[in-house]
Design brief:
94% of the residues lie in helices and 0% in strands. It has helices at 3-13, 15-66. The protein is rod-shaped, with a radius of gyration of 27 Å. The model has no long low-confidence stretch (mean pLDDT 91).
Amino acid sequence: MNIEKELELELTNDHHYQLLLGEIKDLHKRQAILETRIASYDKLRLSIENQIAFKIRNKKLQEKKYA
């Protein structure tokens, strides 16, 4: 058996190594969830900024119209 296969077999049987792999997978899942939330919040922020800008433009146009 070559060294890589022996090492792979040893790591597969190593409980601590398997726990670390599980933690890494969990962290990747959490990262993906957080990235999705950040993207969602960015979309929401942009939408709110656009609504505010629209209201400001309308108010300025109305002030100009009645001035």
